[in-house]
Amino acid sequence: MTLKQISYIFKISILIFFLTNCKNTEELKVNKFDNTNVYSDNSILYALPLTVLRLDFEIIEETTIPGPYCIYAEKYIGIKNAPIQETTKWEINNINIESYNEIDPSELYIFEPVGKFKINIDNLKKNGILIPLNSRIYTEYKTNKNIVKKKHSDILFTDLSSSIYVGYEKNTYFKRVKKDSLYAKIPITETRLVNKSLKEKAEEAAAIIMTIRKRRIELLTGYADFFPNGNSLETNLKELKRIEDNYVSLFIGKKLKTKYNKSYEYTPMIKNINKQIVLFRFSDSKGIVQESALNGRDIKISLEKTGITNEINNFFADKINRIGANYKNKLYYRIPDNSIIKIFDDKTEIANCKFKVEQFGVTIPFPAKFLTDDESFIEFYKNEKK
Question: Rg of the chain's alpha carbons, rounded to an integer?
Fold first, then answer.
């Protein structure tokens, strides 16, 4: 055996000795955060995620404006029960429910790496396993849109008739005229312009409606004096319908719809499971009203826990594993549970969906070595005292 071979074997033996006898410096201690304790400078504080629900309500205000000829609707165009006074009706048109995670202040943990330890914080953050306290996780709170009731000041009825709104009226009066020594009464006729009565204008509008309907039937049955070619027929029919609707609205009125958006944030809590929590009060005549309003009804939210993590929770139920234990090379993380979310309008269910809710789940320790990534990691070094 040559000297070179002996030297090589000696080096390999030294390396094996160090690998088998030296202390492994990779270690990670994780504990629930306690501000009364003193932690090392290279410790990192993190929190478990907390699910917050954002509920966006789309509310529609429908205002009915009576037409100027409403009292003649049945007499001239045969429509009964035309509105004769302005009314307003509110309804919840759509509900959109979203969720996002923020820091759970009751679930703060601190890990203290000793020696060199590799762990991919970015992956843990992206997967929602933990949230570093310096992370920008808060989403922008949605602002409420058009929450102030609008006043309708526009002129809604402009095309009231195809004729002028004045007529000629002849009045005859007598004038005393002296002839010779006698006075005689001479009739004098005077013509002047006067406004037409509401009834007369309603009659004219009704006549226009009947004329339009007659022309439409003639076009459809081929009895018209001319027949449009190509798309002209469809265009003519649409225009006739538009004009007719304008004149009919003089009798039955118009409905104006305004959309409002109201957003609420709700944080589910274990103590409120299977309870109906009031979000706001709602009235068909006034929309969202104060909590004390007698003419409103409650819009409520209710959450039911599906219990898919119950068995896991029972497995880790002993206090030795859950509280006060120093886990080496393990991280606390949370397995969320599913929750059925329901929205009620008084006693009527108006929305139903399912979300994962972090705080309804179970918190357990997980071996940190399964969370490491050799390509992307954070390295911690601590000089041990000799």
Answer: 41
pTM for this one? Answer: 0.69
Minimal CA–CA distance to 257: which of 282, 279, 287, 280? Answer: 287
Name the DSSP letter for residue 181: T
In whole angstroms, give the CA distance from residue 97 to residue 93: 14
Using one digit for the tens of pLDDT, what is the confidence trace for 151-169?
666 677 776 666 665 566 6
Instruction: Give 223-244 pLDDT, tens digit per residue.
Output: 777 777 778 888 888 999 999 9
Given a contact cutoff of 8 angstroms between Cβ atoms, the answer to whether 7 and 307 are in contact is: no
Question: What would you measure as the largest C-alpha separation in the chain, in angstroms?
Answer: 172
What single letter denotes the amino acid at residue 75?
K
The token pair at 161 is: 């008739």
CB 45 within 8 A of CB 104: no
Question: Are residues 79 and 215 in contact, defined by beta-carbon separation less than 8 angstroms?
Answer: no
Residue boundaries of the structural domains of the chain: 24-154+257-379, 166-252
Contact 241, 30 (CB under 8 A): no
